[in-house]
Amino acid sequence: MVMTARTLTGHEYPERPWPAPGTTQKAEPLPPIPAQLVPVVSKLHELLDLREGWNSYGARRIDPGAVVAALRILAQANWLGPLPNVAPTPRGGVELEWGGDDDGVEIECRPDGSMTVLVDVHGQMREWAVAGPDDPNLTEAFIWADKLG
Description:
With 149 residues, this protein is α+β, with helices and mostly antiparallel strands. The protein has four helices and seven strands, in the order E-H-E-H-H-E-E-E-E-E-H. The protein has helices at 5-9, 38-47, 64-76, 136-148; strands at 2-3, 33-34, 85-88, 94-99, 104-109, 115-121, 124-130. It is globular, with a radius of gyration of 15 Å.
């Protein structure tokens, strides 16, 4: 069963294109989201209810564009691996996390539509910006997420 973000959450999310903010390219609709990702969609939906200052240090509200970006990368990857932990970031973004205390993968989706990936495996940490859904670094992050999840 495949569902859309609207079907699962009942919310309309503003679409953000992969290209850099400020470009004139039209945003594509979200691809179908595998039913396995319903718990992730639910958690992302909950994050939208966080109020300004949710962490008592002045954290920003979660930007719907960051939620859409997280859903987009999981849907475009047709992610059927281990489900990520979902966490808010103080600057209004969301983070998808796999792994444990020693090894892990984090994909941060920022309010401006940009993304970064952090892979920390066997004490070796690498971090980079993600250019889009076909970025080989994103592919590598998903390979590690599958192994570590």
